[in-house]
Amino acid sequence: MNDPTRVEWREWGQEAFDEAAEADTPVLLSLTATWCEHCHEMDRTTYAEPRIAANLNDSFVPVRVDADRHPRVRDRYNMGGFPSTVFLAPDGSVLTGAGYLGTDGMRQVLDSVRTMWDTKGSGAGRIPRPLREDNPPAGELTADVEAAMLGQLTETYDEVAGGWGDSPKFPLPDALEFALKRDREMALRSFDAVSANLLDEYDGGFYRFASEPDWSGLHHEKLLDSNGALVRAFANAYLHTGKDEYREPAERTIEYLTTTLWNDDVDAFGNSQAPGESDAHTLDATDRAGAAEPPVDEGVFAGPNGLAIEGLCTYYAYTDDERARRYTERALETLREDLLTDGVVAHTLEGRTERKPNGDPVPLLLNQARTLSALTTVASTLEPAVLEDAMAVADATIEHLHDGASFVDGPAVGAGLLDRPLRPLDANVAIADALLELAVLTGTQQYRDLARETLEAFAGASDRFGVQIAGYATTVSRLLEGPLVITVGDEPGTDLHRAALRLADHEKVVVPAADALEAGTARAERGEFVSDRAETPDELSNRVQSILE
């Protein structure tokens, strides 16, 4: 997209901060995303205004950062959404920040920052709280974690419109899946609300969120990561209910991902689709067919592709859908062949991915976690041989990012505040859950121990976690109770293996091709309870039912 602004943008890097230090002037950091309509609007209006652009060019060092392509910058400087307009001292500390600013608002902020800088200089800068308090509050893991999260969901549940909270309304796939096993009625009403309000009935795929409590005020951008997670969530709702009303939204979304977002040049999923013309989404099918297609960001990012692979593979496990399998395998090959080097996952296929001086990719925690989850799902469902790559990813993550009792988001190097460690809760939960699954699939106790240690590192604050972090309670529950494990002596694809995948507990782990069992047999276990061997799907179902009861 052509840049309509008059601002002389610099790229993120030490050179920009050195320029600011030499000129004794602040840095303006503009955090944007290709799918963000307000970002484009701010470019067309605020940054295109000649006097504002001249002020920025003369009195600041303006830096433009794509949030998807620079996640460590995003996570340190995000002001709660995009665009984020952040003013920094040359050492990277934050002077002040805002979101979208119109021309009048920008003029006021520029005057305020200029006065602040002339009065206090770099002394006005502050370090964001997550970067000041390096170690999260640790605690003991108990059943209270699961109970507290269920209480949060119950308290914030919208009895009228479904979903959780007043506004904005996000789909929250982790919360949907947590509730599915613990309050099915609340979960299914929320699934219904998400599909009725956020699913694009014409093109498929889910919109990002709704701004109002009744799910109106739709934001029409579609992101790969949320759509991949929602395919998995709706597939799991179908597993529990057997109802097509939950299978069909997953199917429609897979169709969208494998057409609109599929990048055929590299055999992987593109990152996002912008909203396009705001009124196009209200047109009937005939008129919409003639409307301009909203632009797609075809950038391939490892983490979102990992989520999409996991979602499609989960759907295949329950349906034998060949499209889901085919695209799972194609995207997985790209992930393994083009993005994975000695267990370290490159952030993107684009040349601007972070790399070490020797050319190796820089490990980022969320990429490692999502890739590991994709690999364990594939190992359970399609191909156990990928466990070799899964263990390499786990070991590289531990080697490069494990620090103390938890994980940091990336190496503490880089411009601005990138040299300060950040311990993101969501990424730590993701890696803990993936390590727990890997421990079951490989029988490696070290991975389970690290999952426990990581969860314990955040447990002191678990009673304050909101519904957005429902995955923490899910993983704690799986750790404490032990997941339902179904071990199958057969390679993937036999009737017995397929039956194991379709037993109605989406938090289970299926271990195919187990050396300890003869071909044609399977058994179920949880904790210390181990069932008798089963030789038919019906026998296996009975064995599992006896454990669940």
UniProtKB/TrEMBL annotation:
PROSITE patterns for the chain: THIOREDOXIN_1 (PS00194), THIOREDOXIN_2 (PS51352)
Ranges where the record places region Disordered: 528-549
One Pfam entry name: Thioredox_DsbH
InterPro entries: 6-hairpin_glycosidase_sf (IPR008928), Ssp411 (IPR024705), Ssp411-like_TRX (IPR004879), Thioredoxin-like_sf (IPR036249), Thioredoxin_CS (IPR017937), Thioredoxin_domain (IPR013766)
Highest taxon above the source species: Archaea
One example of a Gene Ontology biological process annotation: carbohydrate metabolic process
Residue ranges annotated for the Thioredoxin domain, each copy included: 1-115
Signal peptide from the UniProt entry: none
PANTHER family: SPERMATOGENESIS-ASSOCIATED PROTEIN 20
The name this protein goes by in its record: Thioredoxin domain-containing protein
Organism this protein belongs to: Natronorubrum thiooxidans
Highest classification ranks of the organism: Archaea, Methanobacteriati, Methanobacteriota, Stenosarchaea group, Halobacteria
